[in-house]
């Protein structure tokens, strides 16, 4: 196995194991607080949950730092770990407590800075995109290339990310701005799928255009044969 393969393997093992740990904690919380799809109240446990979320991000950043050798690939390994962890978190919940029943079940996705609400499918789609683009980017970096992130592409991706955040937090944000006392516990309105899909497209197109190989997935041997054939043609 290549060096990059070993790195991705161990980061994947870490992410999947960490997802199991997170799922077990959430299974305990759901039982302890009697959380259901109709009743979601964390009460005095909110500070603990926020702390757990911060610790989760720190651990994902740490594994990315350890797996990479310089700033750029440390970022890609960390983001890959985050995406894979998020996907396997829901897989383990399904295995442990048979939830979510479907990918359209609602979940509290995050608590920082406000509650993020959304169907399970929405973060899974983003996580899948993150995994794909970070693998492509890391392969390019390992082969001596550089992902083609221009200022325009980064701007479009940022716009898509901000729009996705707005979709996840819009109900809580509007309630907070209106001074409503229930902003922290408000149940969301129907999910804004059109806006979310626009956000996903804005993130997906520039990131894939920046990381997708120019000449497909050629092996080094194929590239060598291609260059050799070009040289023979030029000599003729």
Concise account of the structure shown:
With about 240 residues, the protein is mostly helical. The chain has one domain (about 5-215). Helices cover about 70% and strands about 5% of the residues.
Helical run tally: 7
Strands, count: 2
Structural class: mainly alpha
- Write the H/E string, N to C: HHHEEHHHH
What is the overall shape? Answer: globular
- Major pleated sheet: 2 strands, antiparallel
Name the descriptors.
single chain; 236 residues; mainly alpha; two-stranded antiparallel sheet; 7 helices; 69% helix; globular
Would you spell out the secondary-structure blueprint of this structure?
Elements: H1 3-32, H2 46-67, H3 71-97, E1 106-110, E2 116-119, H4 121-142, H5 151-177, H6 193-211, H7 220-235
Antiparallel strand pairs: 1-2
Helix pairs in contact: 1-2, 1-3, 2-3, 3-4, 4-6, 5-6
Protein described:
This protein is mainly alpha-helical. It has one domain. The protein is built from seven helices and two strands. Strands 1-2 form a two-stranded antiparallel sheet. The mean pLDDT is 88.
């Amino acid at each position: 196995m290549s060096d990059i393969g070993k790195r991705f393997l161990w980061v994947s093992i870490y992410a999947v194991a960490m997802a199991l740990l997170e799922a077990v904690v959430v299974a305990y919380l759901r039982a302890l607080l009697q959380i259901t799809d109709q009743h979601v109240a964390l009460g005095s446990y909110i500070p603990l949950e926020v702390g757990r979320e911060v610790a989760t991000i720190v651990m994902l950043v740490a594994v990315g730092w350890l797996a990479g050798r310089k700033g750029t690939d440390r970022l890609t390994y960390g983001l890959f770990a985050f995406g894979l962890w998020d996907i396997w978190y829901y897989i383990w919940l399904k295995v442990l407590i048979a939830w979510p029943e479907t990918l359209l079940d609602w979940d509290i996705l995050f608590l920082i800075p406000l509650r993020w609400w959304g169907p399970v499918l929405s973060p899974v789609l983003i996580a899948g995109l993150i995994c794909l683009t970070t693998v492509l980017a890391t392969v390019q970096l390992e082969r001596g290339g550089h992902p083609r992130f221009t200022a325009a592409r980064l701007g479009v991706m940022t716009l898509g990310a901000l729009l996705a955040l707005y979709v996840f937090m819009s109900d809580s944000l509007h309630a907070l701005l209106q001074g409503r006392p229930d902003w922290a516990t408000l149940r969301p309105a129907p999910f804004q799928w059109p806006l979310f899909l626009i956000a996903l497209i804005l993130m997906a197109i520039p990131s894939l255009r920046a990381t997708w190989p120019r000449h497909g997935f050629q092996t080094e041997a194929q590239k060598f044969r291609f260059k050799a054939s070009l040289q023979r043609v030029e000599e003729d």
